[in-house]
Every structure is written in C-alpha cells, then in structure tokens.
Recover the amino acids of this structure.
C-alpha cells in the first residue's frame, strides 16, 4: 500500500516536471534601471503599457526588475550588479549615467537606452545605423533642442536677457547639452547663468546664487538629479516670478511654464519595440538607434497666469498641448 | 516425356497471366484517373497563379495608393505657405503659415521659405532654432529651380545623421513673387502607413527608391541600418527582377530570408516603387492544399483500382489455376477427382471438356492395362481382339474342356550344369523364340515358363472348337521347329532332345496370383496327366492321352504305345504317339 502510494506520488511529480519542461515560451527577465525617481521615465505606466501592447505583461509573460537610483549616481553600479546577479536578459536604462553603468558593468547583457544624450557623441556607440557593441535604443537630439528651447523661451518672454541653467555637473550628456545651449544663448544675445549641481544639497547654493543675481528665466536641464528636485525649483520660480522652460513634457503638465520634448508616447513605443526585438533574439548592436520624430510643445497657461505673463500668438501656434 | 514436362509445369511462367490481367485492369482505371487529376492540378495551378498575380498586383496598387496619399498630403500642406508674395523681411503671415504647417504635418522636419529671387527668408526646424533672413542663396538649388519650373519638385532620399531617411520636397506658388517652400520630410513617418499594410497573413509592403535605397519597411531597423545590409540587398534583387519581369510576379527572398512572391507598382512624384510581398508558402497555400487533395484522391483511386484489379485478376486466374491443378492430377494418373468449376462461362465448359477427357483417358488406360494383362498369357493380336470384343469375362474362372500341352528339353539339366551361363541363356532364347512363333500362330494360351519347360492351354480362355486336334497339330509343328535347332545343337556337341505331352479333359481355368502378379492357369487332373505324358515322351515324340487321341482326325497318325504307369495316377494310362499322317498310309490303332 505504501509502495503504491509512493509510486503514484513519484508519477505525479514526473508528470508535472514534464509539463513544466514543455512550457514553450521563456519568461524573460528585464531590468529597468532609472537614474531618477520611481514612477518617472521608463518606470512610469506608459512604458509598461507599451510593453503590454507587445504581449509582455509584467509578472505573467515578463518579469520586470524596477530599480530607481533617485538621483544618487553612486548607487547605479550596485544596482547593475544586482541585475547581473538576477540574471536579467536585458537592461532598459533611462538617463545617461544609468546607460553608462549598464554598458560598462554588464558587457554580456544587451542594453536598450533612453535619454542618454546623443550616444555617438558620448562614444557609447559607433554610429546610429550600426551601433555595434551591446547597446541600442533611442538617441536624443537634446543638445540641439536646448538651443531650440532657449529660442522658444525667448519667444514666450521677449524681454528675456539672463537665463539661469540648472544642470547636473556629474552627467556628461547634460554637460554637452549645456555647452550647446550656452553657444546658442550667445547667438540670441542672452546671458547664461550656469548653476551646476552635483548633489541634492547643492540646490540651496543654486537658489542662493539666483537670489544674488535674479535671472529672467530658468532652463532646467532635465536629468534625474534636477528632476528629482523639480518641486523645489518650481516653488522657487513661482515665489520669485521667474518663467521656466522644461525638457520633459510631464514637467510642463505639473507646473512648469513651457516644455519642449520628444513625444513620450512615441519614445516608449519605440523603446518597447527595440526591447521586443532584442528579447526575440536580435543582437542589440545590429539594431540602429532611433532619433525622435515627433516633438511636443507644452504651454501651461495656469502657470503663465500665475506669473502674469502675456503669451504671444506665435507661441500659441507652436503649442501642441495647452494646460489650462 | 512426362519427366521433362513436370519441372517446366512447376516453374513460374515468365509473364504470369495474373500480372498481365492485374496490369491491364489497373492501368485501365488508373491512367484516366491520373490524366484527369494531372490536368486538373495543372489548370488549377495556372488559374491560382493567375489569381495570385492579380491579387498581389491589386494589393500593390492599394499599397501604392496609400503611400501616394501620404506623399500627396505634403505638397498640399506646403501650398499654403506659397500663396502670398514676399515684401521686406519676414512678415507675420508667412511666419504663422509655416508654424501652422509644422503643427499640421508632423512628417515635416524643417521648412525653408525662399523668396522669388531664391533668397532664404525663414528657416523653421523642429530641433534647431528658427533662423530669419539668413540670406542663403537657393537660386542654384535644384529644389528651387525644380519647383519654379514644375511647381512641385521631389528630391532624392538622403540620410540624416547617416541613419534617418529624409527627402526634400519643394513647392512653388502660382506667383513667382510668392517664392518657394522647401521642406525636409522625415520618411520614418511613412512607417505608420507601411506597417499598416498587410498582405494575407504574413505578407507586407516596402518601398524602394530609384537608386535601390530602402525608403520604408515595417522593420524600421532595416531602413535605419541603411547600406550594406544583406537583407536590403535581397529586397534590391527583387526590385531588379521586377524591372526585368515587367508586369509578372517576381519571386525571391525577402528581408527575413523567406521565399516570397512580390509585385511592384511605381508611384508618381518621387522615383519610388511600392512592393508587396507574400511568402511563397502562404501564397501557394491554397494551390498546395488543392494539389494535396488531388494527390490523396489519386492515391485513393489507385488503391481502389489495385484492389479491383487484384480481385478481377484473382477471379480470372483462380479457375485457370484449378484447371492447371486438375490437368496436373490427370497427368499424374488420378482421374477420380474431376475439376469443379461453376463459373458459368467458357472456363466451365473447358473444365467439363477436361473432365470428359480425363474420363476417356481413365477408360483408355484401364483398357490398355487389361490388354497388357491379357498379353502376358495371350498372343498380342488375341489380347487386342479379346479387349476389342469386350470379352473381359473370358478370364473369369470356370470349368472347361481344355487341351493341356507340356513340353521340355531332354538332357537340359545336364547341359545347363556344364555349359557357361551365356551359352545356356542364348540357347534358351533360341528355343523360346522358335516355340513362341508356333504358339502365337496357333493362338495357344501360355500359362507359365519353368526354364526349358512350358505349359500351354487350348480352348481357354479363347474358345476353340477342336482343342485336342488343334493342340496335336501345334505340338507337331513345335517338334518341327525345335528339331531343326536340336540338329544344330548336336552338331555343336550338345546332347539335347525335345518332348511334348498333351492331355485333354475338363479343368478349372482362371486367374491365380496376387495383386501385381496375376497368371492365368488351369487346374485339374488333366494338367497333371499332360505333365506326366511330357515326361514319358522321348526326343521327337508327341505323347497324348486317350481322350486326345480319340479326338484326332485322319490327318494325324496315331501310334498306340501301350499302357504306362505314371506317378500320381492310380491306374495305368494308355498312351499314344502322334505324328503327321503320311499320304495313303493306313491309320494305325
């Protein structure tokens, strides 16, 4: 009797093991590495939805390991190590420091990058068409857009003379963007007030500097560090009646005056597409990096009203999203 | 003869009838089936191919129309910017027109407004700061001159940052003073159109320009990957095949390495060709299914034909086999099993004939057996006669008045013990030969040989009116025949003589012996007497008993030799010597 029961149990175990072995599709594990705060960029629902449209449902057909450094760049290497230890099949990164950390520390794992500047310029890939290595993703035209943003800011605030630029000194991509903006500012006859920050506490210094030399507007060079601290900046700007220009559409939606950025929906869609291609076996280095094609100009009329600004007609014409 | 025929009959025929019948019936069913199946498959294939060609061309035209729609939208948007003539500087109207254009047409990455003299007035980009009055001279720019001559000019496809495909479009206003607008189109947005085109289940569309550059493909990485990609090279091969093939479908390999059929349709405006492709496996799916169906039907038909042919051939061959077996039985001499055939056709008739033949053969064999049996103790012509007359009952046992003749050689025992065996047998052969002739001519029945001794019967089984006289005449002729030999033997130094005894009387005649060795003989006192008379006879004498002597006529001379006591016979018997009567000589006794 005992033997019979034991035999039956053994059979059941074997059967279930065989059934498990026959599961056709591997459930991939993907690490989402974000320099900034949780729930932004690739950790926002937008990217998860884009993946879901391609059949990757978190917890069912894919396992997503979400890691957000919250602006603390020193945490990134440890996070990459953790993803390696978890045997992820792929890392999706947001922000240049995250992309670099993943590329350097996990040479065996394909990396799909987003908001990592212009990777050809930063030396991350050989070219857009043939990236080589194990990195693909979305390239930015961000260094160009900085100039564009300054011009748009000037158009919205014709009396503009001094622009304070808040940027993260520890981020190469951001530094490049800042340099490009500075050159463009000169062409437009503007004076730039460079306020580099390296850590969360540096913001107080930046605000103190602006107290001393009040700017006509603020350009928040978007990276994780600055984004994590956007609230403090918005509060300072509102308190001192300083117009601002943002690099991310969502910041325009939550209090920033102006924002000009690539269409985030399109970005997530392309990012999910590239993720899908790599998971289905394509070599990341063979997939060309994609430049953004659609851009959105966000105008927050509520903020404009609070600042007492009159928006010229041309700015209205440009705007894709009006926040009222 | 039979020994030679037997192995030949057992060996398989070189081309058995079964195979022939089978082949003929099978072919009669399968050949028309195959012919109709093959023609159906061929014409079906042609029809399907034609339909497929039409369908892919229609799909290509539809795809081309959608791409055309995308492209045509751009000049019509650009037209708004070339309606008003330029004054000094950049006026609000032009600026607002171009900003509105950028809002309306997301595929336009940048727009350059040029005045009637070819000088750039306003440059608006999505990524770069706007530039007013840059003063750049576009007069020699092919976009400017092209638009001025034909109002609409399509530029070549260029790669932005070595990756993204862009194309310039220039539109001139109705008035030269309104200038020209040159727009850079980001062709990545064609992806929205091209990826929405589906041909069948897995077929897709793509666009190549005149120089073979991939302009649009559902897999955008192929477009962005640009030159040197082997996948793009295979699409280019399709394009060159389409250039050669004209309106025909082209087959080749697509970017994913699948064998595909493709049709291309050129579009007006830029030198582009829109292709639709469908994997061969999918495109020919219906044809393949139809071919499979036909193939299976043919197989089923062939199997049915084979079964039918087998059954028919079996039905044909079965009776023939039975006939063959029957013939073999008859050949082996077994006539008791007739061939059973109830086919109701010629074969049954043949079987009846064979059975009839077997019966006749059995009769004939029985008869010949009887003859050979008769021939053992009757002369051949008598045997034939007896057989022909159907008097087989002659051999039945009965009592009859017979003349029994015994004869033997005198001094033979002494001779045979001294002479060489060859000499003995040679002498006996001569002796029997000589006697045989006489016996046959007198139609006497030879019942047995005992070396030199012979026993003969007259009037059994063959009837004879006067057996005694007939026997006596024969005995005298036998003496005549043997005495000729004896004279020669004596000359050779052999002391031999020949004597004959005849007795006439009632005896039981019939067959004696066992299966396979049957003799005809007579039993009775008269036989014993004849034997004794023979023993008494001296060389050259024919000794007869009183019964025989009484029955003789005048032609024979009878000489009484007195009474003799003989072994096994109680009373002395008067004996007579018989010789041929000499003419005029008085009969003695």
């Amino acid at each position: 009797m005992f033997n019979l029961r034991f035999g039956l149990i053994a059979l059941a175990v074997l059967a279930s093991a065989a059934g498990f072995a026959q599961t056709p599709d591997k459930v991939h594990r993907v690490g989402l590495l974000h320099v900034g705060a949780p729930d932004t960029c690739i950790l926002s629902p937008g990217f998860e939805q884009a993946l879901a449209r391609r059949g990757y449902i978190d917890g069912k057909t894919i396992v997503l390991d979400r890691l957000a450094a919250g602006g603390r760049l020193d945490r990134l290497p440890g996070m990459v190590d953790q993803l390696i230890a978890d045997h992820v099949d792929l890392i999706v990164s947001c922000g240049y420091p995250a992309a670099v950390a993943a590329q350097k520390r996990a040479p065996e794992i394909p990396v799909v990058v987003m908001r990592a500047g212009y990777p050809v310029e930063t030396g991350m890939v050989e070219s857009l068409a043939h990236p080589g290595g194990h990195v693909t993703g979305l390239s930015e035209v961000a260094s160009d857009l900085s100039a564009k943003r300054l011009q748009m800011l000037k158009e919205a605030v014709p009396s503009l003379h001094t622009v304070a630029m808040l940027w993260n000194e520890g981020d190469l991509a951001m530094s490049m963007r800042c340099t490009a903006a500075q050159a463009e500012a000169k062409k437009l006859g503007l004076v730039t007030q460079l306020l580099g920050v390296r850590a969360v506490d540096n913001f107080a210094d930046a605000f103190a500097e602006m107290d001393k030399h009040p700017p006509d507007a603020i350009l928040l060079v978007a990276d994780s560090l600055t984004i994590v601290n956007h609230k403090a900046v918005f509060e300072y700007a509102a308190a001192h009646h300083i117009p601002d220009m943002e690099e991310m559409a969502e910041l325009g939606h939550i209090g920033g005056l102006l924002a000009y950025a690539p269409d985030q929906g399109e970005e997530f869609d392309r990012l999910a597409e590239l993720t899908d291609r790599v998971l289905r076996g394509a070599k990341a280095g063979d997939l060309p990096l994609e430049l953004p094609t659609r851009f959105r100009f966000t105008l927050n009329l509520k903020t404009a009203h609070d600042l007492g600004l009159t928006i010229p007609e041309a700015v209205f014409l440009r705007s894709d999203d009006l926040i009222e | 003869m039979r020994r030679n025929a037997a192995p030949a009959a057992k060996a398989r025929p070189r081309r058995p009838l079964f195979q022939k019948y089978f082949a003929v019936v099978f072919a009669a069913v399968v050949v028309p089936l195959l012919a109709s199946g093959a023609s159906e498959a061929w014409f079906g294939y042609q029809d399907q191919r034609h339909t497929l060609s039409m369908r892919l061309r229609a799909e290509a035209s539809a795809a081309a129309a959608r791409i055309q729609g995308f492209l045509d939208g751009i000049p019509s948007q650009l037209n708004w910017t070339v309606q008003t003539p330029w004054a000094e500087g950049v006026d609000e109207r032009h600026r607002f027109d171009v900003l509105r254009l950028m809002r309306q047409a997301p595929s336009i990455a940048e727009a350059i407004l040029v005045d009637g003299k070819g000088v750039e007035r306003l440059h608006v980009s999505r990524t770069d700061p706007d530039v007013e009055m840059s003063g750049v001279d576009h007069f020699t720019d092919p976009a400017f001159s092209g638009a001025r001559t034909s109002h609409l000019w399509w530029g070549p496809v260029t790669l932005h940052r070595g990756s993204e495909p862009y194309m310039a479009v220039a539109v001139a206003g109705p008035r030269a003073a309104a200038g020209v607008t040159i727009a850079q189109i980001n062709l990545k947005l064609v992806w929205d159109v091209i990826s929405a085109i589906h041909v069948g289940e897995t077929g897709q569309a793509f666009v190549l320009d005149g120089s073979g550059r991939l302009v649009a493909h559902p897999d955008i990485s192929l477009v962005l990957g640009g030159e040197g990609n082997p996948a793009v090279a295979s699409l280019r091969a399709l394009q060159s095949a389409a250039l050669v093939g004209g309106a025909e479908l082209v087959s080749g390999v697509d970017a994913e390495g699948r064998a595909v059929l493709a049709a291309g349709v050129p579009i007006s405006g830029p030198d582009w060709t829109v292709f639709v492709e469908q994997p061969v496996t999918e495109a020919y799916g219906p044809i393949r299914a139809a071919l499979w169906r036909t193939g299976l039907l043919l197989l089923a038909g062939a199997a049915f034909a084979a079964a039918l042919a087998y059954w028919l051939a079996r039905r044909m061959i079965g009776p023939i086999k039975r006939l063959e077996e029957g013939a073999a039985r008859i050949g082996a001499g077994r006539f008791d099993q007739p061939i059973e055939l109830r086919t109701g056709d010629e074969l049954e008739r043949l079987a009846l004939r064979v059975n009839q033949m077997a019966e006749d053969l059995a009769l004939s064999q029985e008869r010949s057996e009887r003859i050979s049996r008769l021939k053992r103790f009757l002369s051949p012509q008598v045997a034939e006669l007896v057989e022909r007359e159907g008097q087989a009952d002659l051999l039945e046992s009965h009592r009859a008045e017979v003349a029994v003749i015994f004869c033997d050689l005198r001094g033979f025992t002494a001779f045979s013990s001294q002479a060489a065996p060859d000499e003995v047998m040679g002498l006996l052969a001569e002796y029997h030969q000589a006697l045989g002739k006489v016996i046959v001519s007198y139609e006497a029945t030879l019942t047995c040989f005992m070396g030199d001794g012979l026993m003969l019967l007259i009037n059994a089984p063959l009837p004879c009116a006067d057996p005694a006289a007939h026997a006596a005449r024969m005995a005298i002729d036998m003496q005549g025949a043997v005495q000729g030999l004896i004279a020669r033997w004596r000359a050779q130094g052999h002391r031999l003589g020949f004597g004959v005894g005849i007795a006439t009387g009632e005896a039981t005649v019939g067959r004696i012996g066992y299966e396979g060795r049957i003799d005809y003989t007579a039993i009775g006192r008269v036989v014993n007497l004849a034997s004794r008379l023979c023993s008494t006879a001296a060389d050259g004498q024919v000794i007869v008993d009183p019964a025989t002597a009484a029955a003789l006529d005048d032609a024979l001379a009878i000489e009484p030799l007195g009474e003799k006591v003989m072994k096994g016979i109680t009373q002395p018997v008067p004996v007579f010597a018989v010789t041929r009567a000499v003419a005029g000589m008085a009969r003695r006794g």
About this structure: The CA atoms of residues 184 and 576 of chain B lie 165 Å apart. Residues 1-9, 584-589 of chain B have pLDDT under 50 and may be disordered. Chain B touches chain A through 29 residues (CB under 8 Å).
